[in-house]
């Protein structure tokens, strides 16, 4: 039956394959050959020997592939030799040994990159275990004490927006190790990662992120932690809790708040995670907003990570605008008293939150928001006053204030008082110029209401002057009576 179905060429090929299997000692091929197939003859000498017997130089496609064990053993030896950590002090570490480790790390990185390109992992279980051990030995280390002074409180220095840069001397070895880690995570399937990367490894990775002063290392750690979060779906809740606990400790523990390295990177990871939340937002995520993100506004070092923090908060409001009330109340409750720089940042955040609201939501928040901004307009700090005045240049803010019925009557009197006070007595000429521009704008938007507010302000000032004169007269009488005795 087989001979009838196959052509002559295919039959010749089948005979050759079965004869090769018989030569390798496979019994099923021997039985098949005995019953159905005669030995194929060599094309060159017409003998009944194996077709490869007359041409030993011809490569045989029937040979098994070479064993990868020697290559794996060599790679394991290289990985094991890279677990030694160097302090990068010439008196302690020989330079040639450091250079040798750098070269071996490059070879390991090449092997892992090759695995990623081939879409398969040519590293057996022993190699993977050795890699994870090398990661632990090189990355999870005792950090030296802070070599730089603490950040200037509340942005009181010149370059207050960014922490001082401290570079690690061991970066020539740390960089390839992080590159190997990123390539390993990208090339390994989720099942293998779950088997080798446990929760202790994830916790140590996060602790290193919060302890390292080198911004290059923190950036690599942020990328690695985020990639692991994307692959280890069963550990995502644990990773979110770990980040929440770390941020909560920073927000409430004064000792932990003295060292703010890594907070911005953790918030950046959180922002990416929040961006992928489903709507409606779960209760545990609401609790994260109220109990973790909002208290971070109160720290002295909020200026160092405020951009990432504001992004997280705004993502929550975009997902669910009903959370804007809790966000605004949380910001106003933690409003700074002595930090001008933080006031400017929070005014910007309030303005961005207002832009995401509709008319009904703004109507319920207009009075507390505008009352705070009006007080900032009258601030003696020129930066705070200017930033608060620029809120009125926001088209969305003007649209909401004008469209909401009765809102202008509630918010404009406080603004008029601050505007007139700035024009009369503010020390900054720039603030006076911006105030005059805002006054002209308000007179165009609501001329009658503005004029009425000015009249009411004049009446209140007259009453205040009369009350002050009465108090002064009473004090004179008291002083005269005291002098007569």
From TrEMBL:
Kindly list the GO molecular function terms attached to this UniProt entry.
protein phosphatase regulator activity
Q: Which residues fall in a coiled-coil region?
A: none
Source domain of life: Eukaryota
Q: Which GO terms describe its biological process?
A: signal transduction
From the UniProt entry, list the residue stretches annotated as the region Disordered.
Answer: 39-73, 142-164
Compositional bias (Low complexity): 40-61
Q: Which GO terms describe its cellular component?
A: protein phosphatase type 2A complex
Query: What SUPFAM superfamilies does this protein's entry cite?
Result: ARM repeat
UniProt-listed Gene3D superfamilies: Leucine-rich Repeat Variant
Q: Which residues cross the membrane?
A: none
Pfam families from the xrefs? B56
Q: Which InterPro entries match?
A: ARM-like (IPR011989), ARM-type_fold (IPR016024), PP2A_B56 (IPR002554)
* This protein's name: Serine/threonine protein phosphatase 2A regulatory subunit
> Upper lineage ranks?
Eukaryota, Viridiplantae, Streptophyta, Embryophyta, Tracheophyta
Protein encoded by which gene: gb29830
